[in-house]
Amino acid sequence: MADHPVIQVRALDNRFGSHIVHEKLDLDLYPREILGVVGGSGTGKSVLLRSIVGLNPPSGGHITVFGEDLTELSATERSRYEQRFGVLFQGGALFTSLNLEQNIALPLIEHARLSRAEAEELARMKLALTGLPPEAAKKYPAELSGGMVKRAALARALALDPEILFLDEPTAGLDPIGAAAFDELIVTLRNALGLTVFLVTHDLDTLYTTCDRVAVLSQRKVLVADTLEKVAQTDDRWIQDYFHGPRGRAAIAAHNRLTEQEPG
Amino acid sequence: MANEPGLSQPLGAHTPGNAELGGHTLKFSGDWILAHYSALDRQATALKARAAGCNPDFSGLGRLDTAGASLMVKLLGSDALISALERAELPNEQRALIQAVSEAMNQPSAEVATVNPVVAFLAETGKKVTSLGQLIWLLAGFIGQTLGTLFYILPRPNRWRWTPFVAALHDTGLNALPIVALLTFLVGAVVAFLGATVLEDFGATIYTVDLVAFSFLREFGVLLAAILLAGRTASAFTAQIGAMKVNEELDAIRTLGLNPVELLVVPRVLAMMFSLPILTFIGMISGMVGGAMVCALALDIPPSQFIAIVERDIALKHFLVGLGKAPVFAFLIAVIGCLEGFKVAGSAQSVGEHTTSSVVQSIFMVILLDSVAALFFMEMGW
Ligand SMILES: Nc1ncnc2c1ncn2[C@@H]1O[C@H](COP(=O)(O)OP(=O)(O)O)[C@@H](O)[C@H]1O
Ligand SMILES: [Mg+2]
């Protein structure tokens, strides 16, 4: 990776009261890569994501995005940068008082200055792109299943055709077929739009099929960040259990079968 | 290099997209991205009729995103575009994007039924009427359910939930005390001023004392405290329970084999029934203190005389009539607040609507019941 990183996290500290979540954490995100972020529950993956997108002011350290330290910008400048982010929150975080179409049309109307009709037409396309049926467009978040909420949230994250996509456990709660389609969609979008993807996941299949690099969060920092093969060989208890436990072995086997079937 | 949707490009440095019809080919050029959506959409709509069946030429295409791809699909139709893609000269990434967008848009769009406005109006009116009926029906049912649970729990001290009860008591009683005292004090002073002004014409300013004492013991003490709690506590109950409903916490309580009425409603109702009489008492006292202050300052009736007149003229029954209404009001306010919380349906907006509704309903019920009670007590001569 000769490219300059789009996101550079340096010596990041995060603590809540006396509870230290991150300590001297370093991480780079390179253009057009899909970086998988894994780690046990409660190791601070969501907190790291929130710190990068600016929702959680870090207790210490620096985060530069597109070469700028977001904490030092004025509100309007920040907003310009934030439009280049798309975020899918762990719980979906759809606006419960708007239907799906309106949820996705909202940023299009506010930022891309489209008319409501144009925005809603585009919104329906994005919903279809994430695999939702047409009749879902008029539904409210409370009427949807968990998997549909995830898809709609992805559609909203993609609304402004962002440059960096942050996904917090996007395939958790999806059925395996839906999860596989989701993985494929992310790769397609990355290839077509030149997206950079920060992907928090527990899903080993997602790691194997989509990620270019994997960062492991453990012991308050990024233990290693490298290609999957190298990370899987790292000598660490948690990493070994994760990649070479029963589920890890199954995912490797599935991945090997797949790559044998389609040579090249 | 022009096809590289690079991050390195600064914002705003792109050429607007264009579609040109030449013979049997439709030539796309420039950037087909969200930033130019409106202009491209107009162009697409204008060209649509003539573009059908044309061969797309992507050689001049710059950047492309999902918004631009969706316009291409709109222009050529998804089937035609997918089959044309096979032959087209296009980087693999953009081919994949157009493919994905075409497939997504290839689904039949949902039919939106149009409704006659007259029918819609009638339907809306009907809905309002039935929902009013349902509101009363639900309230009656919920009151029954709450009373049933209450009487089931009362003889079983091991099921008394002290912690939520004390917490609710602290919140609805103690925390509301200063505002109730201040408000009734001020209203007491106002009533005394009014009395003084009107009674002065008859040379009967001394009766200001009776006016203040009567009105606060019988009506104002309990009414002001109840209205304050309706605004302060009924809304809090609705918001608390409503947020739990949105978060599926109520469902979790049920699946754990617990009864939400027992767990959430009964402690709140009991706490209100305890705190409102106390607040009413405080309200009566501080209203009369406010009246006494005005009497002392403006009418030269010293506090000792004020107390003497109250002792002489005002029977105990007036105090009891006022205080007796407090638990009933408290029960209604708490039950309405909780019920509206249970009615919340899965959205932040719904929490807001039901919070408003619980305040309006509980104040309405308090005033309605108070006027009925006033009539009743008058007929009974109490
Ligand atoms: N707002 C907060 N206040 C206090 N502690 C928090 C807050 N947000 C997260 N934490 C703590 O930070 C740790 C990491 O949380 P999180 O990033 O959500 O974990 P995960 O890696 O599972 O996403 C957890 O121990 C959590 O308790
Ligand atoms: Mg998390």
By CATH, the architecture of the largest domain in chain A is named 3-Layer(aba) Sandwich
- Quaternary structure of the protein: heterodimer
Beta-strand portion of chain B reads 5-15%
Total number of distinct structural domains of chain B = 2
Structural class of chain A: alpha/beta
Domain count of chain A: 2
Mean of residue pLDDT values of chain A: 86
Considering DSSP H and I runs of 4 or more, what fraction of the residues of chain B is helical?
over 70%
Shape category of chain B: elongated
Tell me the CATH superfamily of the largest domain in chain A: P-loop containing nucleotide triphosphate hydrolases
**Strand arrangement, major sheet of chain B:** 1-2-3
Greatest interface and its participating residue counts: A-B, 43 and 37 residues
What's the average pLDDT of chain B? Answer: 88
Q: Can you summarize the main beta sheet of chain A?
A: 6 strands, mixed
Low-confidence stretches of chain B: 1-12
Supply the key terms.
heterodimer; A: 264 residues; alpha/beta; Rossmann fold; 2 domains; six-stranded mixed β-sheet; 41% helix; B: mainly alpha; three-stranded mixed β-sheet; 13 helices; elongated; binds magnesium ion
How would you describe this structure to a colleague?
In chain A, strands 6-7-8-3-9-10 form a 6-stranded mixed sheet. In chain A, strands 2-1-4-5 form a 4-stranded antiparallel sheet, covered by helices on one side. The radius of gyration of chain A is 19 Å and the shape is globular. Helix content of chain A is 41%, strand content 23%. With 264 residues, chain A is of the alpha/beta class. Chain A is built from 10 helices and 10 strands. Chain B folds into 2 domains: 18-105, Transcription Regulator spoIIAA (2-Layer Sandwich), CATH 3.30.750; 155-380, no CATH class. In chain B, 74% of the residues lie in helices and 6% in strands. Chain B has helices at 37-51, 66-76, 78-87, 92-105, 117-153, 162-174, 177-200, 208-246, 249-255, 260-298, 303-313, 316-343, 348-380, and strands at residues 18-22, 25-32, 55-64. In chain B, strands 1-2-3 form a 3-stranded mixed sheet, covered by helices on one side. The longest helix of chain B has 39 residues, at 208-246. Mean pLDDT of chain B is 88; it is low at 1-12. The interface between A and B is large, with 43 and 37 residues. The structure holds adenosine-5'-diphosphate (ADP) and magnesium ion.
